[in-house]
């Protein structure tokens, strides 16, 4: 991708059995500047056009960090990306806490976690405040909900009004008091 004769960004891709796979994406110079100026969006548009003209049924945008708050994950979601588990990923992020301390709560407030859950992917997030300052799982689902999730466990309040707009089969609201003993206790009641 170039602008006024200056190279701005590039994308390396390959065709794999009807899927266009984004192998590598890079920018010349400051990536934040290139993103703001639309270089990455232009690459995505050209990638979509190429996939359509090549008869590809899917586009694989590849991975990102296991958090719905991750900037790359959010950007891919805007382009219609969905979550899926890849068997060829050999790394895993491990997070554990013994009890819900203020530090663990603060971490989870800013970093939702995507985890493997009964053969699928689920997420754990802390409900952000609504305009009244109450923790609102429904607003958290609206902000972070991503296709491909089996469930999203949202810590905060559990009133029906605060969970409005979130699909009950996917968005599971839980109070902080229910998870004081650690992640194992939190996930045990959520499993089918």
* Number of extended strands: 9
Mean pLDDT: 80
The percent range for strand residues is 15-25%
Apparent shape:
elongated
Task: Label the structural class.
Answer: alpha/beta
Q: Give helix and strand order, one letter per element, not per position.
A: EEEEHHEHHEEHEEH
The major pleated sheet works out as: 4 strands, mixed
Stretches where pLDDT falls below 50 for ≥5 residues? Answer: none
Strand arrangement across the biggest beta sheet: 6-7-8-9
Helix count equals 6
Short description:
With 192 residues, the protein is of the alpha/beta class. The protein is built from 6 helices and 9 strands; from the N terminus they run ββββααβααββαββα. Helix content is 27%, strand content 24%.
Structural overview:
The chain is of the alpha/beta class and 192 residues long. It has helices at residues 31-36, 39-53, 71-78, 102-110, 137-144, 183-187; strands at 2-3, 6-7, 9-16, 19-27, 58-60, 113-117, 120-126, 149-155, 171-174. β3 (9-16) and β4 form a beta hairpin. It is elongated and about 60 Å long. The mean pLDDT is 80.
């Amino acid at each position: 991708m170039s602008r006024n004769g200056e190279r701005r960004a590039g994308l390396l891709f390959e065709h794999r059995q009807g899927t266009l796979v984004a192998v590598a994406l890079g920018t010349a110079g400051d990536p934040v500047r290139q993103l703001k100026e639309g270089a990455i969006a232009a690459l995505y548009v050209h990638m979509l056009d190429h996939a359509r003209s090549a008869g590809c049924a899917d586009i694989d945008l590849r991975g990102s960090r296991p958090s719905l708050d991750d900037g790359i994950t959010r950007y891919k979601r805007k382009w219609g990306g969905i979550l899926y588990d890849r068997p060829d990923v050999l790394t895993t992020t491990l997070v554990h806490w013994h009890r819900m301390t203020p530090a663990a709560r603060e971490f989870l407030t800013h970093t939702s976690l995507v985890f493997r859950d009964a053969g699928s992917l689920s997420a754990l997030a802390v409900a952000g405040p609504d305009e009244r300052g109450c923790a609102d799982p429904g607003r958290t689902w609206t902000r972070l909900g991503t296709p491909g999730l089996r469930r999203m466990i949202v810590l905060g309040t559990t009133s029906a009004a605060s969970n409005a707009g979130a699909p009950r089969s996917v968005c599971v609201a839980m109070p902080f008091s229910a998870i004081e003993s650690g992640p194992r206790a939190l996930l045990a009641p959520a499993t089918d």
